[in-house]
Amino acid sequence: MSQITMMAALILLVSALVWAAMSAFALFEPRLRHWSAFWASAIIICLFSPVLGLVFLYIPAPYSAAYFDVPLLHGSLQALGGLIDAPQENPQGVGAVLWSKLFYFAGLIYLAGVCVMVARLVIGRLRVGQIAAQATQMSAPDVPAFWVTERSVGAFAYTTFGRHGGSKIVIPRTLMQSLSTSELADIVRHEAAHIQRRDDEWGVVLRFILAVCWASPFVYMLFAQWTMSAETQSDMAVNYGHPQAQRRAYAQTLLKALKITASRVWQYPVASFSTRHLRSEKMRIKHILTGDVPSFKSLRHRVLLSFVALGVTVSGALIFASSTPIRAVADNSVIISDLSLGLA
Questions:
Q1: For residue range 137-160, what is the model confidence (pLDDT) as tens digits?
Q2: Are 124 and 268 in contact (CB under 8 A)?
Q3: Please, which residues have CB within 8 angstroms of residue 4's CB and are 6 or more apart in sequence?
């Protein structure tokens, strides 16, 4: 259980460092705030770097003390292997016992939190899938196919994980009845951009990482940045090249949708047209009206980011594994207190 507690502490430490670094990069280059892959890679690093470090730490050593155990050697010479990293006699005091119990209970609390968060993710996903399955397909002039639900929810895109062809754009009837044809088309195009970018599927993966890293507030902040950047890029897919009047109309459509989603109480896909986070929606509206265009979209940028994220993950894991005290040798190592090289 102490290993679990160690991993939780490492996740907190690594996520704090990653969040600070990513925020600094975003201040230096503001366009990075609108690059969803930038924030997604940061979230992945927060989990996989500590986990990989623990894996490296507990990989069996290539040479154990038992390799000295050669029958042709005298018993005293065989004991040379046991002198390497031999465990020391160090009885635990009362303080050490208390710390051990504290680490144990902290590990239990962390595991319980992971179970609760994963359960919430699964239940929320099942509810969303049920709403999408019960929705009725509709059509409108100059509007791509979409589905209508009687539930009072926000418009969202749903994709069965791993089955990109079965995606649905679900819109509540109350919202659809309050929109004009052009406003409805804008929402459908926004959700279609989410589907094309696989934001719903990525959202499931990142929310699972968020469930495992629930004890770190920095991972939540990184996830909020990723959600915001995904919405911004989908907004730009709708508004790119449009005049200011159409941008204002799109912002008004977003405000209408906010009235529908204000009472949401359970988890929805990140590929939703609107959310309950008013601060984020204000930033979206400002971005819609100003018309800034994120530019980090090329394959070269994505490949470079992937290599950097992989290098940071492996480097962090190796630093952690190498800086941790070497474990005691296995129980089958020969340990002696008095080495004698004389022949018996």
A1: 887 777 778 899 888 778 888 988
A2: yes
A3: 107, 110, 111
